[in-house]
């Protein structure tokens, strides 16, 4: 069947269209991304009227694209940017009323668990016990375990976008202190689920950091091994802090839209890896969107 996964995140609204079947890997058919930056459209703690109207139109366009590309089912969800807005329920209701799309609000734990599921399926059982890290725009997700459902799963409000808005490059020391304190509150529980055979990073921030540190480009395909060393992250924190956003956007793997927050992403990655004791992590091409698909297929087939 052809499925569409609509991911309304802190930075982008991303529609991933895949051909999927039980027992098989989802095969990407097309990908469509719109930079929305929901977190910057907040009026206080609520999504603004302009932000809501823009979201409605973006979801409508994504729905039309899903229909045009032959999707039999759309799996739409939202993460921290809208989840944390005080008018989240009202926005969700308006989107459904005006587009017919019922956005599902994922909890931070849902994000962690389904990302872990995707990583486990990609790497397989031979990977042993896993620790999985995922830096989003609004939060850092951490999960660990030996099975497909992690033993522990956490969400920490230190996403790259959130930290970029709160701290600028001139406040790097304060950002580092805050990030370490937040991650330090849960890292002990994560480590008690160990020891781990492999530590894994997923999603755009880790992929971008790995690329600027010398990992293979995306054009080489998903099956090329990619990894990220903590020493390289620490080196790049200092280098990124000296760059302006337009200079960061010239780096391999860093888009103009992500250039403003890649420094904060590096700070979060450095802190998480150091506090967990990970000298190096592998990079997995599957993350939350694939986890949503796999979870849907599992329940569809009664697993």
What is the strand and helix layout of this fold?
Layout: E1 2-8, E2 12-19, E3 27-35, E4 42-43, E5 46-47, H1 49-68, E6 73-78, H2 80-83, H3 88-99, E7 104-105, H4 108-123, E8 130-135, E9 140-145, E10 152-156, H5 160-166, H6 172-191, E11 198-202, H7 203-212, E12 227-229, H8 230-241, H9 245-248, H10 262-276, E13 280-284, H11 288-300
Parallel strand pairs: 1-6, 6-7, 8-11, 11-13
Antiparallel strand pairs: 1-2, 2-3, 4-5, 8-9, 9-10, 12-13
Helix pairs in contact: 1-3, 4-11, 5-10, 6-10, 7-10, 8-10
The end-to-end distance, rounded to whole angstroms, is: 18 Å
The overall pLDDT, averaged over residues, is: 95
Helix content: 40-55%
- What count of structural domains? 2
Strand order of the largest sheet: 10-9-8-11-13-12
Look at the helices and sheets and give the structural class.
alpha/beta
**Total number of strands:** 13
- Beta-strand content bin: 15-25%
CATH superfamily annotation of the largest domain: Exopolyphosphatase. Domain 2
Remind me, CATH topology of the largest domain? Answer: Nucleotidyltransferase, domain 5
Which segments are poorly predicted (pLDDT under 50) over 5 or more consecutive residues?
none
CATH class of the largest domain: Alpha Beta
Looking at the overall shape, the CATH architecture of the largest domain is 2-Layer Sandwich
**How many helices?**
11
Give the overall form. globular
Sheet with the most strands? Answer: 6 strands, mixed
Radius of gyration: 18 Å
């Amino acid at each position: 069947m052809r499925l569409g996964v609509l991911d309304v995140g802190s930075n982008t609204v991303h529609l991933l269209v895949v051909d999927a079947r039980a027992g098989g890997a989802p095969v990407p058919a097309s990908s469509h991304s719109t930079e929305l930056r929901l977190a910057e459209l907040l009026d206080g703690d609520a999504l603004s009227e302009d932000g809501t109207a823009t979201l409605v139109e973006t979801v409508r366009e994504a729905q039309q694209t899903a229909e045009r590309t032959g999707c039999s089912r759309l799996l739409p969800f939202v993460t921290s940017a809208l989840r944390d807005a005080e008018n989240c329920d009202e926005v969700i209701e308006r989107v459904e009323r005006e587009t017919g799309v019922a956005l599902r609000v994922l909890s931070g734990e849902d994000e962690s668990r389904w990302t872990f599921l995707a990583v486990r399926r990609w790497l397989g059982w031979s990977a042993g016990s896993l620790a999985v890290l995922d830096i989003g725009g609004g939060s850092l997700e951490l999960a660990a375990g030996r099975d497909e459902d992690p033993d522990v799963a956490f969400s920490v409000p230190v996403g790259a976008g959130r930290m970029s808005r709160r701290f600028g490059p001139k406040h790097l020391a304060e950002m580092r202190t805050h990030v370490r304190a937040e991650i330090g509150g849960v890292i002990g529980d994560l480590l008690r689920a160990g020891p781990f055979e492999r530590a894994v990073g997923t999603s755009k921030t880790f992929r971008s950091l790995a690329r600027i540190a010398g990992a293979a480009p995306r054009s080489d395909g998903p099956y090329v091994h990619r990894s990220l060393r903590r020493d390289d992250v620490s080196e790049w924190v200092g280098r990124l802090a000296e760059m302006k956003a337009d200079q960061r956007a010239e780096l391999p793997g860093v888009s103009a839209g992500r250039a403003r927050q890649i420094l904060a992403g590096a700070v979060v990655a450095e802190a998480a890896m150091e506090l967990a004791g990970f000298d190096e992590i592998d990079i997995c091409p599957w993350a939350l969107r694939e986890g949503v698909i796999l979870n849907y297929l599992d329940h569809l087939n009664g697993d």
